[in-house]
Design a protein that fits this description.
Layout lengths: L2 H9 L11 E4 L4 E4 L3 H28 L3
Antiparallel strand pairs: 1-2
Helix pairs in contact: 1-2
């Protein structure tokens, strides 16, 4: 899973209230998100969760494709 790619995608978002972009820092197995407000953080956290889920599903499909 490429957390750096996910963090870059999160940093492309802008807060609808404050017109500010977040700072997303990939860590060992997570991403730290710094942003202007809790509402925006919640939106970004949901997006991050969704993107991580897609990455894991793709990784599993690739892994099990070899077992057919």
């Amino acid at each position: 899973m490429d957390l750096k790619k996910i963090a870059q995608n999160l940093e492309r978002e802008k807060c609808s209230k404050h017109n500010e972009k977040p700072k997303a820092t990939p860590k060992k197995d997570s991403i730290d998100i710094s942003c202007c407000c809790q509402e925006f953080r919640t939106k970004l956290t949901n997006k991050m969760t969704s993107e991580i889920k897609k990455e894991v599903e793709n990784d599993l499909k690739k892994l099990f494709k070899g077992f057919r």
